[in-house]
Design goal:
Pfam families: Exo_endo_phos
Shape: globular
Strand content: 25-35%
Protein name: Endonuclease/exonuclease/phosphatase family protein
Distance between the termini: 33 Å
Order of helices and strands: HEHEHEEEEEHEHEEEE
GO molecular function, one term: endonuclease activity
InterPro entries: CCR4/nocturin_mRNA_transcr, Endo/exonu/phosph_ase_sf, Endo/exonuclease/phosphatase
Helix content: 25-40%
Radius of gyration: 19 Å
Number of strands: 12
Keywords: Endonuclease, Hydrolase, Nuclease, Signal
Length: 280
Amino acid sequence: MKQILTALFLLLACASNTEAQRMNVATYNVRFDNPRDSGNLWKDRKAALINLVRFHDFDIFGTQEGFKSQLDDIVHALPAYERYGKGRDNGMDAGEHSAIFFKKDKFKLLDKGDFWLSETPDKPGKGWDATCCNRICSWVYLQDVASKKKFYFFNVHYDHQGQVARRESSKLILAKIAAIAGKTPAILTGDFNAKPDSEPYQLLATSKSIKDTYSMVKVPYANNSSYNGFGRDLDGEGVIDHIFVTPQFSVYKWGILTDTYVGKFPSDHFPVLTVVELKK
């Protein structure tokens, strides 16, 4: 009996350890704090957005569009997370961020950085045919505290107007992942403003370096498009928010989280969640 109990304990411990190595990874365009969003102001929806993150227990997630004040609100309400990401307008706090949040008790920050989606990625600026905005990619180099495994996490927001900018951004992203991460495992999240049939998406998805986690699960949970327009665009099936990983990851789940609050939406995008694990 003692041997049976010992074996059962070891089996449960092994299963628990396996689950502990899995990560809930998400990408979430939180919608910038726009005073013209009547009925969907940040002050009214932020609690729902924060509760969503807490309930679904994101281990690490990339955000897009957040101003510093919004990111401060999230960290204040969720002190278990550390964040990194510079403002796209001046490389400090100004403008929207592609900020990354990760659990402080699960990951140790080893390095960090940013680059802009342009012909001059080391400084703020618009790229190619973009006319609206600077676009930035932020990244962190993390170590899993439990397993000691290391990986990179990149988070980005592509231009919504420039077709050349989106195409060239994908080329730049692939080059930067190769230059910064090398052969180290890497995750890429973001709002790519690109559906799966588009050239910018295909450049990433058909590359030899990364794969879309959507394609790596048998049954993706995709009951809606990832953009909802605060409920004005619920009929589409196009996903523009994606999570890519290098081949060192196994993927167990993928889904669009369509949570609402009193009939409203925490953002004009739904978050996309995937469950991944670094292979041995």
